[in-house]
Amino acid sequence: MEIAIALLFSTLRQATPLLLTALGGLFSERSGVVNIALEGMILFGAAAAAITVNRLEVATGGEVAFWIPWVGLLAGALMGGLVGLIHAVAAIKYRADQIVSGTAINIAALGAPSIVLQVLYNNTSTSQEVVNRLPNAGLGPGSILVIFAFLLVPVVWWVLFKTPWGLRLRAVGEHPEAAETMGINVIRMRYTAVVLSGVLAGIAGAYLSIGFLNQFIRAMSAGAGFIALAALIFGKWHPLGVLGATLLFGFAQALAIQLQGGDLLPATLVQALPFVLTMMVLAGFIGRSRPPAAVGKPYDK
Fold this sequence. Notes:
Blueprint: H1 2-30, H2 38-59, H3 67-93, H4 98-121, H5 144-162, H6 164-174, H7 176-181, H8 186-212, H9 224-234, H10 239-259, H11 267-285
Helix pairs in contact: 1-5, 1-8, 1-9, 1-10, 2-3, 2-4, 2-8, 2-9, 3-4, 3-8, 5-6, 9-10, 9-11, 10-11
């Protein structure tokens, strides 16, 4: 029983960054913009959160204060939103190839934080450890962001399917020309959606660096952005489907952690388990999921 409970809590912790990122990607892709840059947004958000908390601790003489991690979380969210804005400008204003734009951001996320780390900490791989981490929820799952992520699912569902804004967002992603004739500002809706996706991915990054761990580590997202995209496809661009998919991938990651150090399976196979599952899911379901009709198509007013 204890092993099952531990596996459950580990699943929730592992699923949290995937869920936050996938819900962010849901807004972007429902508006018609492919956001393959989610991986980079996570990393930029994680770096901003950890570095901000560390700098505040230095400035306050190592003080332990409840407000410091929340400022770090805000910094992560703002950095993610800023990166989302960059992707939006490239994809919407300049009608750049959305895959190329997102890939460029992902590459930048591997190099740019290393430059900052070199300047601040004289190394290119890790920040200093922080003391002021995000508070624990008082439950087994850990950080309060775990609770926030799962409570966000019904909120996103309600926004998408029960509000006029959600109706406009879905219309923009399906038939932007028809939406424009109805008075909907397609460009504004897409900008808002992509920036919002960046904010949520940045929060996911902050969870990793100052909630799940206590420092930023280069490439610490370990493919979470790409797995979140797979969850988005597997979940058929629906919040409840995304919830189920991220729990499945979170379980695979938690199980891999539980199996590490054992003799049941080779270590390399255990480490690859989440990614093997991702490929199997995509191979089996990508043909059955219908994306928003206008996703990936630049809109020319």
